[in-house]
Amino acid sequence: MRFARPISILVAAFAAPYLVASGALGDEPAKVTLTLKDHKFSPAEANAPAGKPFVIEVVNQDGTPAEFESKPLRIEKVVPGGKTITVTVHPQKAGRYAFFDDYNEATAQGALVVQ
Amino acid sequence: MLGALIIVFREIIEAGLIVGIVLAVTQGVPGSRLAVGLGVAAGVVGAVLVAAFAGVLAEAMAGVGQEIFNAAILLVAVAMLIWHNVWMASHGRELAMQVKQVGDAVRTGGRSIAALGIVCAVAVMREGSEVALFLYGLAASAGATTADLMTGSALGLLAGVAVTALTYLGLVTIPQRKLFAVTTVLISLVAAGLAAQAVAFLQQAGVLAILTDTAWDTSSILSDRSLFGRVLHTLVGYADQPSVLQVLTYFGTLALIVVLTKRFGAHRPAPRARAVGAAPAE
Description:
The complex is a heterodimer of chains A (115) and B (282). By secondary structure, chain A is α+β, with helices and mostly antiparallel strands. Chain A is 16% helix and 44% strand. Chain A has one domain: Cupredoxins -  blue copper proteins (Immunoglobulin-like, Sandwich), CATH 2.60.40. Chain A has 1 helix and 9 strands. In chain A, the strands form 2 sheets. A 5-stranded mixed β-sheet of chain A has the order 3-9-8-5-6, with no helix packed on it. In chain A, strands 2-1-4-7 form a 4-stranded mixed β-sheet, with no helix packed on it. In chain A, a hairpin with a 2-residue loop joins strand 1 and strand 2. The relative contact order of chain A is 0.22. About 9% of the residues of chain A have low confidence. Chain B has one domain. The radius of gyration of chain B is 20 Å and the shape is globular. Classes of the chains: A alpha+beta (115), B mainly alpha (282). Chains A and B meet through helix 1, strand 6 and strand 7 of A and helix 3, helix 4, helix 5, helix 7 and helix 9 of B.
């Protein structure tokens, strides 16, 4: 039982911000839809609002899995073949945020223009 | 072919490094090879299962199943690494000094070894599931270049195994007494890095919607997608664009390990050692 304590401290350490975080859902956030077909994004460039959360929806029309990834937005999410995923992006400053499909980086590239 | 090699290698380098470290840490401990072997095997099975059910996972928990799952297994690995370090702090000295009760220590040591086996399983499962998905994509899109890509993937896997071997062989050249200190620090840094990764997934899921701003951007100096960046990412938790909360988590985890190690490390050994001890009892 000696280790019940460190583990419970650990759990508490991670759970505390978890409890603080939920809430604060005002009006419906803007949604950006990106479609993957033949390992290419369309649109390859899209706009998103600055300073407020928005949702990126990735529709994978290819039969093979993709991994939607954006370094500056810190997104990393598998999109199985034929599936759609969404990810909510935290408020961002104006700027250009690149994204790509980690499995098909050569062709599947794009960027979000936040303004 | 080179592209496939790089993708597969990049995905498994983290698992390769971690398994190499665990092999070095547990070197010479009875049953440790079996634990690592079982851990890796379980990780491979887990990786295939995760890849096979990627669709289910993606749709689970209102669309954030993937993030929660990744965060959860990373936190399991973090807990196991911390536990191992704390366990070593309280028993390691007895083991090293060959004090009595070695039989007892080895028996309880079995639990610590099992914890490291679980760490191997988690590392292999997490990175391996992405490799499995990538390979599935290759197999599904059968074309003229598929065989070529499969060769590249196989070479990437071999390179990952080579990383394990190099890590292990490099670490075991360190003299036994220093090895303990080196691996303790290394395991602490790995654990802190994995905790920060878990936080990134929780932030992505919207669960930890605080301190999400980017703390720094050193991607133009050293990208954590580059080979060297990736190695540093695993070994010391380097990230080129971490969030503020990730940075706090990293240092918070290190602080937690130091506190727990001090507390439980000074607690256990013989009463004599305690008289000298630094940590207060409760």
